[in-house]
Amino acid sequence: MAKQIVNAAPEAVTTGLVDTATQQRLERFLTYEAALMDEHQYDTWMALWEGNDIRYWVPCNDDDQDPSSGIAIIYDDRSQLEERIMRLKDKTAHAYRPQARLNRNIGGVVAVSREQDIVEVASNFVLGEIRVGVQNIWFGKCLYRLRDSGETFRLLSKKVMLLNNDEAMPNLTFLV
Q1: The whole model's pTM is what?
Q2: Mean pLDDT for the chain?
Q3: pLDDT tens column, 12-65
Q4: Three-state secondary-structure class, residue 87
Q5: Would you put residue 116 in left (φ > 0), alpha (ψ -120 to 50) or beta?
Q6: C-alpha to C-alpha distance for 147 and 68, rounded to whole angstroms
Q7: CB under 8 Å to 129, separation ≥6 — which residues?
Q8: 112: exposed, middle or buried (C-beta count within 10 Å: 0-12, 13-18, 19+)?
Q9: Which one of 130, 139, 153, 166 has the largest count of C-beta atoms within 10 Å of its C-beta?
Q10: pLDDT of res. 2
Q11: Rounded Cα gap, residues 53 and 58, in angstroms
């Protein structure tokens, strides 16, 4: 996220690309999205996405690696994301049971670009996870493309850049 903020137009950091009310709506939306993931409310979380041309991406090794020529932890379009959700909800999928208890904090929400009703937003997160007696703390940055309807936002893409994406990591049994 730091790179996105540093490379953003100067007004993204000084006066802001969105007004105060829109900034508050962005922060509330991202907090709500995080709560849905933490509570395993997958169907409601999926309803936040707009259309079929979506992308949920968790890069591996390098935040800016080209996903068409490198590997990714997750690089899902809508059908792949729906399949992932189906597996997460499957009560017979023992690799996903018991469900992790999750708590994430979102901060540093900054609109880094805006073109008409599309706003690109950067944020940071800290995610605590506990599952079968093992506790993990995940740090990361997110870059969202959102459509602003004036009342709410809809997800078009989400890129999650884990701080440790170049290290060995356990199976992700939750949405990050």
Answers
A1: 0.90
A2: 91
A3: 667 778 999 999 999 999 999 999 999 999 999 999 999 999 999 999 998 988
A4: helix
A5: left
A6: 25
A7: 100, 101, 102, 135, 136, 137, 138, 174
A8: buried
A9: 153
A10: 66
A11: 17
Round to whole Å and give the CA distance between 176 and 166. 16
- Range 86-107 average pLDDT: 85
Q: Which two tokens stand for residue 67?
A: 């996903």
pLDDT above 90: residue 135 = yes
Which domains, ranges and CATH numbers included, belong to the chain?
Answer: 2-162 (3.10.450.50)
| Residue of 84, 90, 87, 32 whose CA lies nearest to 54 | 84
Longest dimension (CA), the chain: 51
* Structural tokens at position 40: 């395993």
Token pair 């690696």 in the structure block, residue: 65
Task: Report the amino acid identity of residue 41.
Answer: Q
Edge to edge, what strands does the sheet with 101-115 contain? 72-76, 55-59, 153-162, 134-148, 118-131, 101-115
* Residue 145 bridge partners (DSSP): 120, 157
Is the backbone of residue 123 left (phi > 0), alpha (psi -120 to 50) or beta?
beta
